[in-house]
Amino acid sequence: MPIPARALAALAAAAALAFPFPAQAEPGDRQVRVWAAACAACHGTDGHAQAGMTSLAGRSADDLYTLLIEFKRDVRPATVMHQHAKGYADEELKRLAHWFAAQAKR
Ligand code: HEC
Questions:
Q1: Which protein residue's CA is at the shortest distance from atom 33 of ligand 1?
Q2: Could you report the per-residue pLDDT of 47-74, keeping only the tens digit for each?
Q3: Ligand 1 centroid – CA 43 distance (Å)
Q4: Taking a C-beta distance cutoff of 8 angstroms, is the pair 59, 101 a contact?
């Protein structure tokens, strides 16, 4: 018996609710790659910045997360990062931090 598309969609939605995103980003986490692409303009592809800009690749996830939260809460002086950080939920910043930490250092 064919399964109606609507039933499949409902199942997918239920699965998404049952399995919220993991606390630690996997390297294959597509959503976090999309977010990280927005950082690439300044911090380089996969966090490998050009000279003169801060690289994010391979740094401690805890450190990156702390920096991002401080930007978001306006407790760390910033020219632009306070704006960027505010665009993400804390949990999303954590996924970004873990994703950049998982990138090989160059
Ligand atoms: C428009 C350029 C730009 C974009 C886009 C950008 N950043 Fe930044 N980032 C900066 C600048 C400039 C700083 C230094 C702090 C400041 O002046 O805001 C910085 C600093 C940081 C730092 C602190 C590094 C350190 O060691 O002090 C982190 C972490 C960081 N950015 C993460 C990100 C992430 C994650 C994204 C994407 C969501 C992102 N940035 C997008 C320009 C950018």
A1: 39
A2: 999 999 999 999 999 999 999 999 999 9
A3: 7
A4: yes
What domain count does the chain have?
Answer: 1
Domain of residue 48, residue span = 25-102
Q: What distance in angstroms lies between residue 40's CA and the mean position of ligand 1's atoms?
A: 10
Q: Does a structural domain hold residue 51?
A: yes
Spacing, Cα 70 to ligand 1 middle (Å): 12
How far is it, in rounded angstroms, from Cα 70 to Cα 76? 5
Q: What is the CATH number of the domain that holds 32?
A: 1.10.760.10
| pTM of the full structure | 0.81
**CA distance between the termini of the chain:** 53
Atom of ligand 1 nearest to the CA of 96: 35
Alpha-carbon torsion, ordered 91, 46, 84, 63, to 10 deg: 60
16 domain residue, yes or no? no
